[in-house]
Amino acid sequence: MRILVLGSGAREHAIITALLREDAGHEITAAPGNAGIALAVPVIHLDPENPEVVSDFALQNDIELVIVGPEAPLVAGVADAVRRRGIPVFGPGKAAAQLEGSKTFAKRIMDEAGVPTGRAVRAGDLAAAIAAIDEFGSPYVIKADGLAAGKGVLVTDDREAAIAHAEFWLGHGSMLVEEFLDGQEVSLFLLSDGHNVLPLSPAQDYKRLADGDEGPNTGGMGAYSPLPWLPDGFVDEVIDSVALPTVRQLAKEQTPFIGLLYCGLIITKAGTRVIEFNARFGDPETQVVLPRLLTPLSGLLLAAASGELGGLPRPEFSDDVAVTVVLASEGYPETPITGRLVTGLATAEAIHGVSIAHAATALSDGALVATGGRVLSVVATGADFTEARSRVYLALEAIELDGGQYRTDIAARVAQ
Ligand code: AMP
Ligand code: GLY
Predict the structure, then answer these.
(1) CA 76–ligand 2 middle distance (angstroms)
(2) Ligand 2 center to 276 CA (angstroms)
(3) Residue at 330 is within a domain
(4) What gap in Å lies between CA 203 and CA 229, rounded to an integer?
(5) Which domain holds residue 142?
(6) What is the tens place of the pLDDT at every residue in 54-104?
């Protein structure tokens, strides 16, 4: 199949690795990709957020499936433009992508569909925000309404900090004050063709920068899959109480969700609650879900894009476990220092079970350099979490990046 993958992160590298592993002779192009992706497939420098540019390219190059990695092209309407040209695209149109692009929209859909989520108030001015902050009490949860690249949410006991965050986002659009939800977090991905859903294997993401869940929220510092502690029937419960009602509500509103419904969940004492939806594969969770996928990915994504998931069996996963640890630049997440050399990848990748998904890398005079905050996603599979963890951390010891930071406790809680 001729496939175009949009995006430039570790998630897209992991998607491409899974497609290549099928050994099906796919002709894959990535736009714009990164240095690691460029070693695997041809990359082109088109603007992935421009609907006309992407759909023209797909048409002119006889692309048979477009896979949209990040949220920005979805919110910009890239999937709509490609679909209008009659080309299958894995990713929702602009309207359905509001499930991620607007927390107010997501709350309304959940409300209409009866999906369990935290109580939230959209505050139009600071007085209303403060009133909601004091009504919900500490810990305070303040969220930007729109896309914020992982920086929109503040969870804090500090009332002044909560108010300052609310004030900032009021000046940059709108914001929500939400009830604090306490419990384990789960990321569950579901393929959707607009009507039917198929679940992938659950994963857990580590959002905070430092060990012990200290420090600021980030885009994600590591992940593992599967989650051996999940209660029996968890996935079925989420399909019935979250995914299907949401997909049906969007279909009813004539904005079908075709793509990856990412359910960000918290298991509270009172039951499972949605904390957020995303309209695309999660990063870094994809890096631990896809290496365990046994069913060919291209067939699943094409079936979703073509409205043909109904009747398909659930995707199968290996019994192996997977762990990923993100190597980030000094200064991440506030002001990452870029341009530094990254070395030792060949030694790291020679370790059994280890692979590296590039996130923000480029070649400069033949040397690999970091170009952003999250630089690499080091992945290891193993028979159990002890084995996968020892492999992933051995690999990280082999990699050099001045000032590089990574968490040392990823998947520690599930290792024997
Ligand atoms: P989000 O971008 O909405 O996924 O939020 C980022 C992170 O903030 C989540 O993964 C949670 O760790 C935390 N968070 C978000 N909403 C809540 C909430 N209502 N209660 C507790 N923690 C939350
Ligand atoms: N890992 C969180 C996200 O992809 O949004």
Answers:
(1) 19
(2) 10
(3) yes
(4) 11
(5) 121-178
(6) 999 999 999 999 999 999 999 999 999 999 999 999 999 999 999 999 989
